[in-house]
Amino acid sequence: MNRFYVGSEVGVLHSVLLHRPERSLTHLTPSNCQELLFDDVLSVGRAGEEHDVFANTLRNEGVEVLLLHEMLSETLALPEAREWLLHTQISPYRLGPIFADDVRSYLSELPFDELASILIGGLNYSKLPIQSTSIMQGMHSSSDFIIEPLPNHLFTRDTSCWIYGGVSINPMAKPARQRETNHLRAIYRWHPRFAGQDFIKYYGDEEKSYDNATIEGGDVLVIGKGNVLIGMSERTTPQGVTHLAANLLQHGQVEQVIALELPKHRSCMHLDTVMTHMDVDTFSVYPEVVRKDIKCWSLTAGKPGEVKIVEKGYFVHAIEEALGLDQLKIITTGGDSYEAEREQWNDANNVLAVRPGVVIGYERNVYTNEKYEKAGITVLPIPGNELGRGRGGARCMSCPLYRDGI
């Protein structure tokens, strides 16, 4: 199956990209986890076991699961891809010309699977078995990183997002995540599953600085019928939204982008942490953040090469109009105000639909899951005591590659 198309958030899910937590999490410590965008250190073994339950739940629902580590390893087996990725990730500007050459020479001889582990999981000075004439080794302690780990690869939703007949390879906002994008660029360009396939690259594939025009997939909801809902959060800027919208409209893949303004704080780092699509006419919403008064804009095609931007009123009405619905069903986070805040923090609103009305979510969010069930939504529960410490649920941890429209 080589089809790549995501026509909605809730249509039948056929294929998805995940990343099982591994080496990168072993490098999380209390002193560096904040810098690496985690709030806590995770039990690596337990997180892996929980992720296996997630992947197997998807497989049991008939979804094909591709794993990022394997896809990257298979991409690195191709000489052109390996050379590009090593020069991109280990540039002379990052490590200095001498040390970069020495590190690349060492890495280029490693087995592809081990090389993938290092590019994702990191490499410190104590693990480098060569001596360089560069001053870099003498300037660093053995525990310093030559290649920083990328633990946030766990959240495959953000680095790239498939929108109808193409993909946005996203320029990430935080330095701790920016190298992730190059792995997806290489996979989509060279891996046999993607190379030569008929899909559009809307945004982010060029090797250039995107400056403030950042966008992350957790803010992008493909709500269907030619519409896309995008949150402008702490990670996704109006500049990024406008660039992506212009390319989507130029390619004729969408009729409208609806952009929402979100607070810029950690508890709602992406739109999908406070709002997700669960059924054709049903959304989960955390009302403390997704309030009636949040600003909303409609972006549509204007004159050739231009985007027409119009401020809208209540965002729910904008979605109803876009989807041709008389009334949208909104399910708010469960429990009293304390329980709702706790469950939103633990990703109660971040669920992944496998088909209309059937979603995967963390079992720990008992009050919200009960509300979903009472509203006719089936919840397939997965454990998340460790995975949830990374502040991401089932939607965050998945990048759909092939999903039906509505």
UniProtKB/TrEMBL annotation:
UniProt KW keywords: Arginine metabolism, Cytoplasm, Hydrolase
Biological processes per GO annotation: L-arginine deiminase pathway
Domain of life of the native organism: Bacteria
Catalytic site: 396 (amidino-cysteine intermediate)
Functional pathway: Amino-acid degradation; L-arginine degradation via ADI pathway; carbamoyl phosphate from L-arginine: step 1/2
Single GO molecular function: arginine deiminase activity
Compartments where found: Cytoplasm
EC number(s) on file: 3.5.3.6
Reactions listed under catalytic activity: L-arginine + H2O = L-citrulline + NH4(+)
A single cellular component GO annotation: cytoplasm
Family label: Belongs to the arginine deiminase family.
NCBIfam families named among the record's database cross-references: arcA (TIGR01078), PRK01388.1 (NF002381)
Name of the molecule in the record: Arginine deiminase
